[in-house]
Design goal:
The complex is a heterodimer. Chain A is an alpha/beta fold. Chain A is built from nine helices and ten strands. Classes of the chains: A alpha/beta, B mainly alpha.
């Protein structure tokens, strides 16, 4: 369970987040949707504890991020915007490095890495340097790396970026599998169609504020006759009116 | 602690796999020794040439002063027969074109003037801007002066004058430099080359730690792991120090081997630079590695990209030269208050070592303590900077 209460963050004079509140349930995929520059990445960065909010609180699995950032990081897996792999290390070494930094015992490091390589279909490239990987392979390795300590919560920043159709389909399957295991999955995207089929809950954010929340079914009920994409466009375009 | 080791091991593994970096790490330490070897070889060959070899000098009007020519010949300055010098203009041309370093022209009236109370004239034609020719010109001039004095003395003696009247003051020189201390002049450049090699050894990793990781977007996920930023940075700096020490050790080994091959005795130098001295020098310079690593990491943390960091760190490589230039200009001797300045203290201690003089334990301790303190201070600063949000760029 991820809970966010009234967080704000400014960079210089730019107000990136302005009193954002929402919650992401366990056993559900929550989509953080918004146009570019809406504050999605800043929000995920605050949740992954690399940035601190100016005001407001955030809790991951009941752990307050400001009070116990290290404890929060233990229950969090993060897939950043760019995979951020080490090119000179192999896929396996990249995964194992994070396992060790999570403080897993050496046997667990090896076995977890092997299991994830198996599950994510990385066997063919496991012992090759990450240097020559395709975008799809990089994302898979980064996902395996984020899951190495078996976290209850997963944050994904625009995970489908740069992936081809097949890779996107596979990613969706894995995310559904993670949801099935009761995990709390929070992902960001700026394309409604991409997440429409995937998410259980939607949080639409524009200009640093949450403009609309609900399940796709709820939203369809509230705005009869409109497609989810049309609802999204309305939610982000009239930020000043904030009628919705 | 285990985080530190995990990070350190990964950084070393990653760096060793980067072929470009590894090659520059291995070749860098050879640069200094090669330069010094070339420098010393050149000096040796020049010194030996000017002292022993017979100097061939084209002469104009040699037939007018057979005694002078014979005197010069006896001092190893022979007339060059194959070059015909017709007049002074031709002589000037020979020097100007660089064909000859020096030409001697004997005045047409030399024979007539020589016996009288008028001074007989000779002209030396040379190019002062050619530093290579200076030693040859000086040799010829010295020999002619000596001839002139000898003839003058003989004349006074013939007139019954006591020669000591002509020299009311006599300067005696007593040079107390030893072969080892003379070599220290040249080998003094060592300290800088050694400090330079130490810094360049860690350059890549120091940049990679902040600017590099940020540029490759691997810093952000790293910071979401349940480890403190201090332990991450310390692990990275430890790896940096390992590479710096390796570079220093390689340089010292290369120096030791190179110096054994050089004919240092021929230019009045001696080298005590065996593997024992090299090991001592390593111990004296090792505390500089953490200081340099912290300094480079601190500077790199202000930059956005690898390239930008490289630009700034080039200046950092020059920082240790400042105290060294100061020391060389003022010819400073080791004393306690100077030992607080890193790089200067290293220069003074290593120079003492090369001069074969005993090392003062207090001075060594002061150097080690102050260097490590500065290193700790900069390390703390680097950690503070690593904790800023701006580190993500």
């Amino acid at each position: 369970m991820i809970e966010v209460h009234g967080i704000s963050k400014s960079f210089g004079t730019v107000r990136a987040l302005d009193g954002v509140s929402f919650a992401a349930r366990d056993g559900a995929i929550t989509g953080l949707l918004g146009p570019n520059g809406a504050g999605k990445s800043t929000c995920l960065r605050i949740l992954s504890t690399v940035l601190a909010p100016a005001t407001g609180t955030a809790r991951v699995g009941g752990v307050d991020l400001a009070a116990a950032p290290l404890a929060a990081r233990r229950v969090l897996g993060v897939l950043p915007h760019n995979s951020g792999l080490y090119n000179q290390l192999t896929a396996r070494e990249n995964i194992e490095y994070y396992g060790r930094l999570h403080g897993l015992p050496e046997e667990a490091v090896t076995s977890r890495a092997a299991a994830l390589i198996e599950r994510l279909d990385l066997k063919g490239v496991a012992d090759r340097k990450a240097k020559g990987f395709s975008q799809g392979e990089r994302t898979k390795v980064a996902l395996a790396r984020a899951l190495v300590h078996d976290p209850q919560h997963l944050l994904l920043d625009e995970p489908t970026n740069g992936l081809d159709v097949m890779a996107t389909r596979h990613l969706r399957d894995w995310l559904r599998e993670l949801r099935g295991q009761g995990r709390c999955v929070l992902l960001s995207s700026h394309v409604m169609q991409e997440v429409e089929a995937l998410v259980d809950d939607l949080v639409i954010i524009a200009a640093g504020r949450v403009t609309l929340t609900g399940t796709p079914a709820e939203l369809a009920q509230r705005f009869p006759g409109l497609s989810l994409e049309e609802i999204f466009v309305r939610a982000v375009s009239g930020t000043q009116k904030s009628a919705v | 602690m285990s985080t530190l080791l995990t990070v350190c091991r990964k950084e070393i593994l990653e760096t060793v796999r980067e072929r470009r970096v590894l090659i520059s790490l291995l070749l860098g330490p050879l640069f200094g020794p090669l330069m010094v070897t070339a420098m010393i070889n050149l000096t040796v060959s020049r010194t030996v040439t000017s002292a022993e070899e017979t100097l061939q000098v084209p002469m104009l009007g040699a037939e007018r002063a057979p005694n002078l020519v014979a005197y010069l010949n006896a001092r190893g300055i022979a007339r060059r027969d194959d070059t015909v010098v017709t007049d002074v203009d031709r002589a000037a041309e020979l020097v100007a074109t660089g064909e000859h370093d020096v030409v001697l022209a004997i005045d047409e009236a030399f024979g007539e003037d020589f016996g009288t109370d008028r001074a007989a004239r000779v002209t030396l034609i040379f190019d002062r801007s050619k530093s290579r020719a200076a030693s040859r010109v000086n040799r010829v001039r010295g020999a002619i002066d000596a001839y002139s004095q000898q003839i003058g003395s003989l004349r006074l003696l013939a007139d019954g004058v006591d020669l000591s009247l002509l020299r009311p003051l006599v300067v005696d020189e007593l040079d107390v430099s030893t072969p080892a201390s003379r070599s220290a002049l040249m080998l003094g450049v060592f300290t800088y080359l050694l400090l330079f090699a130490t810094l360049t050894g860690g350059l890549h990793l120091a940049i990679d730690t902040t600017a590099g990781e940020r540029e490759r977007k691997s810093l952000e996920p790293l910071l979401t792991l349940p480890v403190t930023r201090a332990s991450l940075l310390l692990g990275k700096m430890t790896a940096t120090v390992c590479f710096m020490l390796a570079s220093l050790a390689l340089t010292l080994v290369a120096f030791t081997i190179a110096l054994k091959q050089l004919p240092l005795e021929q230019i009045g130098m001696s080298s005590n630079f065996g593997f024992g001295t090299a090991a001592l020098a390593f111990a004296l310079l090792a505390p500089f590695a953490p200081l340099g690593a912290a300094l480079m990491t601190t500077v790199a943390s202000f930059t956005k990209t690898y390239r930008e960091a490289q630009t700034y760190l080039t200046f950092v490589l020059l920082v240790p030269t400042l105290p060294l230039a100061f020391a060389t200009l003022l010819n400073i001797e080791p004393e306690p208050k100077l030992m607080w300045i890193p790089s200067l203290s290293h220069h003074l201690l290593v120079t003492t070592l090369i001069k074969d003089q005993p090392l003062d334990a207090t001075l060594v301790a002061l150097s080690v303590v102050s260097t490590l303190l500065f290193g700790a201070l900069l390390g703390w600063l680097a950690i503070r900077l690593y904790r800023r949000e701006a580190i993500l760029g």
